Fold this sequence. Notes:
The structure holds two protein chains of two kinds.
Chain A: H1 2-40, H2 42-60, H3 74-209, H4 212-232
Chain B: H1 8-15, E1 20-22, E2 35-37, H2 57-62, H3 72-95, H4 104-125, H5 129-149, H6 162-184, H7 186-191, H8 201-255, H9 261-304
Antiparallel strand pairs in B: 1-2
Helix pairs in contact in B: 1-8, 3-5, 4-5, 4-9, 5-9, 6-8, 6-9, 8-9
Amino acid sequence: MIMLKSQPIALLFMGLFVFSLLATCQAADDAATTVKADGTHAHEHAASHAGHAEDHAAAHGHAPVDPNPLTINPDLSIVTAVIFVLLLLILGKFAWQPIIAGLDAREQSIANNIEEAQRVNENAKKITQQYEAKLAAAADEVREMLEEARRDADSTKQRVIAEAQEAAKAEQDRALREIELAKYEALHELSNKGVDLAIDLAGQVIHKEIQVGDHQNLIKDALQNFPQTDSLN
Amino acid sequence: MADSALSSEHIFGHVKDADYFHFPRAFPVGDDDGHLYLPQPLQLEEPIALVKIPGMEAVNNMVEPVDLKLTKFMVLEVAVAILAAVIFIRLAGQIANGSRPRGRWWNLLETFLLFIRNEVARPAIGHDADKFLPFLWTMFFFILGCNLMGMVPWLGAPSGSLAVTGVLALATFLTVIGAGMAKMGPIGFWIGQVPHMELPLALSILLKPMIFCIEIMGLLIKHFVLAVRLLANMFAGHIVLVVLIAFIGAVGGAVHQYYHPLFVGVSLASIFGATALSLLELFVAFLQAYIFTFLSALFIGMAVHPH
């Protein structure tokens, strides 16, 4: 990581180093001439020294360099002005205008995307809320249904039990009633049979041995027993 | 010492404009001095002196005569312009459809463009800023290109010449005046140069013309300083670089031996010093392009919104 980070700086430094070396070639070059000049023409060199630069410049028809940094070359000014205006016009037409338009379009599209995303997000939230509400309602409904089902089941159970109990009771009652009736009828029949038997016996007895005196005793007994029989019933 | 590596001839010759490119003598281009002279199809036989004020030799010497000579800086400026045009017209093709930036080069260029738009133009000018973006962008990249040309060996920085920086400052000045007059009205702009003051009438008549003159001078000086600041930074930086490297030549000339310990020591020190200063110069190249653009935006902003 450190290698990667420092790499561009190292490259830059090396590049500048090479540039400095290249520039140094020139300086060494200058030195070489001086060495040669000084070595071979030491005496005449000193003599011609002062005029050398001017001579050298004159050989090419150029004025010596003016060290004043504030000199103005009107030609260069005019050329600069022309280049700058042309550059402004050309770049303005073919570069800056499309770039400004492109940047604006991108800005607009990003803004639109964000707006769209917010809208969609808002919508999604709303739908989620709706579904959550629906889910809650459904849960309530389910609970209600379960409650109702339980209530139904309870009431059905109660009803079934009650009915069963009622039925059982009715059956029991009916059985009791029937038993009662049977008992009554049995008793009734028994009493009837007893009376008949008594009468038969009585008749037989009467046919065989009844006398005048017996008749009278019988009637008397019967009359005496009358109220007793009544109380029996 | 006129022929020494440290003579002003040599030193200024490497920084100032010339009608030749200067290469090492070992290169197969150029003459015995390594000078590759430019063709001069238009050069006048008799240069025309533009300024001839009697008794003002300093001023007369400052403005060189018109000779229609083709110079190194002109060639370099054309190269900068062509490079800028190629780079940004290509970039425009990529950006035009509003797609997202891809790749280091595209992102780098966009970072410059957006920095100048968002951090320079818009804060300084306000809501009209985008109208001045083409001017500011052109200004920034032209100056940056000119500054960076000075970092390439054997070329030079056209922005180290008052003729160039003066024209650029003039362009800002004209833009400032034009923008101000378009916004405030041709007369309103100039009246607006005098700040609003509650003054008695008599005092107002006396003071306001004076303040007006001072303000106009201030306006001119501001733009002149704009030119000088860029010039001084580029010129001085390159002079220092040349001097550092010229030590090698000077020592070589004095000791007459390439293997002399003094020569080796000074050479190494000079190379490392020049490398370090080149880093500084690289920073200054960007910084000065930024400052020129930022101040241009500030002046435009002040003209468009005077209060």
